[in-house]
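pinned: reference chain
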Amino acid sequence: MVLYDFRNEENLSDNVAEIHFHKNAYPGLHGHNYWEIIILIEGEIHHRIKQPQLNIDHSYVMQQYDYCMLPPRFFHQFQNIPGKTSQHINLSASADFAVSVFDLFGNFANEHFPPNRYYCGKLTIEKANYFIENANKMLIAKKDNMEEKKILPKIAFLEFINILIGRALLPSPPPIYPEWFSTLLATLNRVENINLTIPQICKLCGYGQRQLLRTFKTYLGTTITGYMTDVKFNYCCSLLANTNYTMVNICERLQYSSVSHFNKLFKQRFNMTPSEYRKKYNVLHS
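pinned: its structure tokens
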């Protein structure tokens, strides 16, 4: 089965599953013949869900790490909120593949995920980061490794259903991180906070530098500086893939004074220059 978009009346893919990033709004109400999962990873956006045969017409504001899973034949629409930007992950699976995943969990999954309702909620930061990493791997694998391109979204869809079933069985699982640390990570991943210094971060959360460093090492296996560098590079990849900003502008946003030094760091991390990354993955040029 191919993934079919009723908005454009065209086949999106011959794969049974896909995962990718999408920036800002969709133009108009549209539907698909596949299961679609939307995970908002940045900003806020208006989301409208409609299914005329079931008398469903629901509008609400999606916030960071909110998710929505829509069955086939449901329609939805994104509208930008004035003054705000957003980015989300689209994870889609054909109806046949979704059924095969549900069947792995027996009657429990089929009873909890009938195709006549939609599902909304919020992911923890660590779970949201899992899907962000999966989508980033998909960007890199997209043209170089066709086999990985097919496997990654299947794994992501299976993991998402596993999360939902785990929540149905255990409605209130204990958080992996301390609550204050989860809140801090969510705050640090906001664009306006990616250039905070360590003293500013300590002031923000109310903990001393030594204790904060110990917490980062214990739960994330990295330093505060290392984590913030990862956040900056993730944001840089998003800008390269979704905008036409120059490297001078991007470096200014990330507070790197030397473009050549930043290019060197980028190549060490991704084994390609920023311009090569943009040439491969910029959606405006695809």
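why pinned: Residues 1-12 have pLDDT under 50 and may be disordered. The radius of gyration is 20 Å.
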